[in-house]
């Protein structure tokens, strides 16, 4: 049984036309993709802020006053 060879190379070894597969996005598709990216970014920012605030609430403000 032959094992497949695993390349140690990075992106410079990828085909030059990758990941483009010949499809051009319409302006509407680009806007839709941009809106989706913004929505994902805002969701991540919200989650980070929520986790930060919940940590401060759970441990209390004295968490910041502890000596290192």
Description:
By secondary structure, the chain is an all-alpha fold. The protein is 49% helix and 0% strand. The protein contains one helix and no strands. The longest helix has 33 residues, at 27-59. It is flat and about 55 Å long. The model has no long low-confidence stretch (mean pLDDT 80).
**Backbone CA Rg:** 23 Å
N-to-C SSE series? H
Q: Quickly count the helices.
A: 1
Total number of beta strands: 0
Euclidean distance between termini CA atoms: 57 Å
The whole-number mean of residue pLDDT values reads 80
Structural class: mainly alpha
Multimerization state: single chain
Biggest beta sheet attributes: none
Question: How would you describe this structure in keywords?
Answer:
single chain; 68 residues; mainly alpha; 1 helix; flat
List the helices and strands and how they pair.
Layout: H1 27-59
In short:
This protein is an all-alpha fold and 68 residues long.
């Amino acid at each position: 049984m032959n094992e497949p060879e695993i390349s140690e190379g990075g992106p410079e070894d990828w085909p030059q036309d990758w990941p483009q597969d010949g499809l051009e996005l319409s302006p509407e598709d680009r806007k839709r993709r941009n809106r989706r990216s913004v929505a994902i970014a805002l969701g991540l920012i919200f989650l980070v802020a929520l986790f930060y605030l919940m940590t401060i609430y759970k441990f209390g403000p004295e968490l910041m006053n502890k000596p290192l």
